[in-house]
Amino acid sequence: MRADRLLSLLLSLQSRGQQTARQLAAELEVSVRTVYRDLEALSAAGVPVVASGGPGGGCRLLEGWRSPLLGISAEEATALLAAASGSGPLERIALGDALAQARLKLLAALPAAGREQANTTASRFHIDTQAWFKPPEPVPHLPVLVDAVRRDRRLRLAHASRCGATRTVDPLGLVAKAGVWYLIVRSDRGIRAHRASRITEAELLPESFTRPADFDLSAYWARWTAEFEASLDQLPVTVRLTPAGLAALPQVLGDTASAARATVDPDEPGRHRLILHFDDRQAACRRLLGFGPDAEVLEPADVRAELAETARRTAARYRDSPDSMP
Fold first, then answer.
1. What is the mean predicted confidence (pLDDT) over 44-71?
2. Helix, strand, coil: what percent of the chain each, to 5?
3. What is the mean pLDDT of residues 209-231?
C-alpha cells in the first residue's frame, strides 16, 4: 500500500539521514521515479523534504525536523532496540517485518544525538530464544493458529493424543518458550495450554468469540508453567556429590538442576549434599549414573539399592567383555 510505503520512506529519511533516490528505491523495492513521486506526496502533506542533485546530493529532511518521542531514556531505548533484534519467533508468525518497522520508527523518533549511541549500544546485545541442540519444532498449522488468535476466531482442532477427535476452542493466545509454541485455548473444559506441534488439524471457523475480560496471558502462563513443573518431579532423592560432581551438575542434569541448594555434607567434609527431584525411581537411576563415582545416593533406600545393582551389572558387562583390559 502506498501509505505504508510513504511511512517507510519518511522513517528511513528520519533515521538514516540523507540518501540518494537510488538507495531509497532499492530499500523500498520501487523505481526511482516512484521515490520522487512519493517525496512530492510527503512534501504536499507538509513534511519538509529537501532533494538536491549533483555530487553529494540526495534526499533528506529539513535539518532539525523530526517526530517527537517524549519521555524515553537512553536506557529504555537501548532495551527496546535490543529486544527488537531477537526476532526469531516473531518471524515465524509473520511479525518479523512489523518488529523491524517498529525498530526503524524508534530510531527515527530519537534525537540525533542519542540515536547513534542507543543503536550502537543495542547492537552489543543479542537475544537467542532457541534451546541448545534443538531445531525449531515444525508447526504446520501455525499460520492458522496465528490468524485465529489475531482475529478472535474460533478453531476446530484435532490433537495427536486424541486419535483424530476434534474440539471447538477459543484461541486466547500463543506463547513461544525456548523454540516451542503453545496455544492457549478456552473450551468447555476450561482454559488450557496445548503444544502447537501436536495439533494435527486446525480449521478456522467463521464465528468469532468474546475474550474473557479478566484473562491475562502472561499471568496465566506463569501459573501454568509453575503447576506443570511441580507435577513433573515427584521423587526427591538426597545425594552426596564430590566437588567434581557438583561442577558437573548442569552438564549431567541440565541447567534447571543447578538451582538445587547444595550444603556442605556434615559427615564427609569436602563433599556436598543436596536434594534432586525425578519423575520416578528408574529415571533417577538412569540420570544419576551419569555422575559415575562422583555421586552417592543417600536416600531413598530403594533408589540407592537399584543404582548400586545397575552399577554392578554395568561393571560386569565390561569386565566380561572380550575387549576388556586384563
1. 76
2. 50, 20, 30
3. 89
Cα dihedral sign, 157-233-134-259: positive
pLDDT band at 179 (very low <50, low <70, confident <90, very high): confident
Average model confidence (pLDDT) across the chain: 82
What is the amino acid identity at position 311?
Answer: A
CATH class of 233-319: alpha beta
Give the domain 142-216 fold: SH3 type barrels. (2.30.30)
Phi-psi label, residue 14: left if phi above 0, alpha if psi -120 to 50, beta otherwise: alpha
CATH assignment of 2-61, given 1.10.10.10, 2.60.40.10, 3.40.50.10840, 3.40.50.2300? Answer: 1.10.10.10
pTM: 0.56
What stretches of the chain show up as alpha helix (H) in DSSP? 2-16, 21-28, 32-44, 74-85, 88-92, 96-109, 112-122, 142-151, 217-232, 243-247, 249-253, 281-288, 301-319
Three-class DSSP category at 62? coil
Q: Within 10 Å of residue 89's Cβ, how many Cβ atoms?
A: 20
pLDDT tens per residue across span 300-324 = 999 999 999 988 888 888 876 666 5
**Cα atoms in the 13 Å half-sphere on the side-chain side of 1:** 3
Within a 10 A sphere around the Cβ of 67, how many other Cβ atoms? 12
Q: What are the domain boundaries of the chain?
A: 2-61, 74-122, 142-216, 233-319
Residues linked to residue 273 through DSSP beta bridges, in sequence order: 240, 263
pLDDT tens-digit series, residues 23-35: 999 988 899 999 9
C-alpha cell belonging to residue 13: 529519511
For residue 143 the three cell numbers come to 499460520
